Amino acid sequence: MRALIVEDDSFKAHSVCDVVRKTFPSAVFTAATSVHAAVGKLQEMAFDLIMLDMALPSHQLRPGFGPTSSLLSGGLEVIMELSYLRRSDPVIVLTQFPEIEIEGNLVNLRKAKEILIENYDANIVSVIHYRHEHPEWRISLQEEMKKIQ
Asked: If one looks up domain 2-60+67-147 in CATH, what number appears?
C-alpha cells in the first residue's frame, strides 16, 4: 500500500502513521508538509490512501526566504488537485478543528464529508476529528481504512 500523509505537524503525522501501520503493516509512506509539496507528490504518482490535514502552509519554510502563508483550508487545494487530475485516490481528512471552511462557509465535521463530495470530484472516504488525547480518532481511522482494503 502506498500512503500519502499530508501533515505539517510531525507529532500528529507519526501518530497517524502508527495507526495506519496497525491496519496495513506493509504500508509505504510518502510525506508532504505543505500544499505545494502535496500537489507535487500527486503529480508524481497515485496513492492507495491519502491522509490529509486541512490547515496547511502554502509552501515549506526555507532558510533565507520569507515566511510561508498558513492556509486554514489548504487541504482543499489538495482535494481540488485530485479533482483536476480526475483521480480517485481515497482521502481521509484528519483535522484538529471542529469545523472546516468550504467555499467560504464553516462546516461542522459531521456534515463535511457530504459537502466536500457535493463540491469536489474526489473520493472523500471520511472526515475525522483528530484529538490526540481521545482514542476515538484512532478507532475511526482504523474503521475507515478497513473499508478501502
From this structure: 3.40.50.2300
